[in-house]
Amino acid sequence: MLQPESYVDFEVYDADVGNLVGVASATPPNIEFLTQTITGAGIGGSIEAPIIGMVNAMTVTLNFRSVTDSATKLAAPVKHTLDLRVAEQYWETVAVEKQIHADRFVMVVVPKNTSVGQISPATMASVSGEYAVYRYEAYDDGTELWCIDPFNYICRINGVDYSADIRAALGK
Fold first, then answer.
1. pTM (predicted TM-score)
2. Could you give the domains of the chain?
3. CA 140, CA 37: separation in Å to the nearest integer?
4. 93-102 tens-digit pLDDT
């Protein structure tokens, strides 16, 4: 049995140009489904019903140490494909050994804002960028965990495409 222990390290690539993007940290987006509040006769109150395959807007945040070339390039108001590659450490309880899994988070993004942070003596610049996420994929050691793509009505989690029936109903 595998027990996750820690992220060891990560790298971020701009997959459109194959460049390494130097970042200090990344905050991947939440997957949050749209909801509809249901009230009325026969319901003792209200229920928040998640809508299948429909997600709220997603945002990824990248934090840089300074105004790097990569931070500047990612500020351009065009599509960028980010590829976050993570080395994650696991403990294998049966074999009694450590393992490293290669995790990936791939996102098609467009910048929302770039902040140069605070300027003060003997500190890093704390530059950050927020990016609207148009497509979000995650992999654990090569196995797809999810693919969320609202424009193409894709909401695939653990191999199940929850939007397949929606696409079929719409003739897509």
1. 0.90
2. 2-169 (2.30.110)
3. 34
4. 888 899 999 9
